[in-house]
């Protein structure tokens, strides 16, 4: 069933202002793809010979153990407070930017 509506040839309100285009985002996918491919290649090599030593994988494991130790020593309460502070800071910056963008479009 088709319902016909009259055309609004002369709208009473102005059209909404056009938003400026967002700048293009940086793409990090090739870097992550390379990391995954390297680790996959390492996994294939380790299945063939379990005595293989890889300095890149060893360094990543050392870094991961260090970060894990720091987070374990800090405890859940400290991590929650830091996360909440970062979340509040991000929301504050977002609102501040929105307020300044609306002032710029009002002035123009």
User: What shape does the CA trace take?
Assistant: elongated
The percent range for helix content is 55-70%
Approximate strand percentage:
under 5%
Instruction: State the major sheet.
Output: none
- H/E series, N to C? HHH
- Based on secondary structure, the structural category is mainly alpha
Number of domains: 2
Rg, please? 27 Å
- Separate helix tally: 3
Give a count of the beta strands, DSSP E runs of length 2 or more: 0
Low-confidence stretches: none
Average of per-residue pLDDT values: 82
Distance between the termini: 45 Å
Written account of the structure:
The structure is a single chain. The protein folds into two domains: 30-74, no CATH class; 75-108. The longest helix has 32 residues, at 76-107. It has three helices and no strands. The chain has 108 residues and is mainly α. The protein has helices at residues 29-48, 55-74, 76-107. It is elongated and about 75 Å long.
Summary, kept brief:
By secondary structure, the chain is an all-alpha fold. It is built from 3 helices and no strands.
Q: How do the strands and helices of this protein lay out in sequence?
A:
Layout: H1 29-48, H2 55-74, H3 76-107
Attribute tags:
3 helices; 108 residues
